[in-house]
Amino acid sequence: MEKESVAAFMLGVSSGYPFALLAATLTTRLAQDGIEKSTITTFALAFFVYNLKPLWAWVIDGVSLPVIGRLGQRVSWMLVVGLLVMAANLNLALVDPKADIAATALAAVLMGLAGATFDIVIDAYRIETLKPYQLGTGSGMSQYGWRIGSGLAASLALVVAARSDWHLAYAVCAVFALPAMLTALVVGEPQRHQVVRDKKGMAEIWASIAGPFAEFFQRKGAFLVLAFILVHKIGDTLANLTFRLLFDDLGFSNDEIALYDVGIGFWALIIGVFVGGVIYARMGLKRSVLIALVLMAVSNLSFAMLAAAGHSNLGMALAIGFENFASGYGGVVVVAYFSALCDLRFTAAQYALISAGASVVGRFLTGTTAGALIEAMGYVNFYLATTVAALPGIAIFAVMMATGLVDDAMGTAGEVGEGDARE
């Protein structure tokens, strides 16, 4: 296996764990502490910080760190931000939701801020390390790592919390920041990283901020591509950020959640990533992405069926299995497509814009309305609604395929180097 793919896997491990602490275990922790659903789903707004990362992603592209910057732009930022993530993790471990919900909310936002910045560095490092022909395989390995990192972090926290307390459970998860930091040190600065110029004066700083956005929106069909990015994952995000509420209300224990999420879910993900890699290689980027969009929409139906069935181990296994298969498959092809959209001069800023836009609408709706919708509609109708919400993304991408905009809007990350993602 090529070293770039191994690096992508290790980066994914570290990228997945902050999300797991906020999306999975924090929701369970708040539910077990007796916090009401409307308050719990409001915590999804902590993820909104991830959607603001384009505002400071240009710093990762253009600002050199003193002293440690000698290691390289990407490597130095990876080490510094990794330490910040570990500090935010420990801070979240120390708070007590029952004693001070406001302090818990602040700690969650700080964790989101650190995790979002970590993602900026990790995504830029991954895209610039992989060559165009490796985008599919590298995205798959990154998804393996992401799921393993998030699954292990969530399961470790749940198991430790069941036997000790949530403070220790969160604290031990800080070690998951290390794989990305060590990878950067071992592999070194990416060869495909293109420096635009030194940012010294105010004019240059403004150019570094506006440049990534201006370059993207000058492409043919850029606004339709942006519309696709914004809406394609609404249903999937709404569903994923509420699964733990469903599990808690159906009476599943921490051990059962850990078993199915890591056991059944992990192997389903492995199969999904493998199938995604095969389909990507045989059918190309465009058709494989369209299949992924359909699978992600249909996967929400499995949770509607679980909600209707009640506390069913078989039902949970099937729902988690199908969801992880769809996520594994989609993670390979959709991430490869989004990576190929980047211009190598602005990798950090543009991928931050793309990845933030991919979930901003779903996260906002989850944080503001999901809890109330569940209480008003019930889980079954809620998950049916999330399936319907996925349909516009499928329609837009089909139009992009038919008009050639998928290829026309591609960035240099999909073209420069060995291979071509448009083929």
Explain how this protein is built.
- Helix content is 78%, strand content 0%.
- It is mostly helical.
- The longest helix has 56 residues, at 254-309.
- It starts with a helix and ends in a 15-residue tail after the last helix.
- The chain crosses the membrane at residues 39-63, 75-95, 101-123, 168-187, 222-245, 257-281, 288-310, 316-339, 380-400.
- It is a multi-pass membrane protein.
- It comes from Novosphingobium mangrovi.
Proportion of helical residues: over 70%
N-to-C span: 23 Å
Say how many strands there are.
Answer: 0
SSE ordering: HHHHHHHHHHHHHHHHHH
Structural class: mainly alpha
Q: Compute the gyration radius: what is it?
A: 20 Å
Total of helices: 18
Low-confidence stretches: none
Fraction of residues in β-strands: under 5%
Mean pLDDT metric: 84
Shape: globular
- How does the major sheet shape up? none
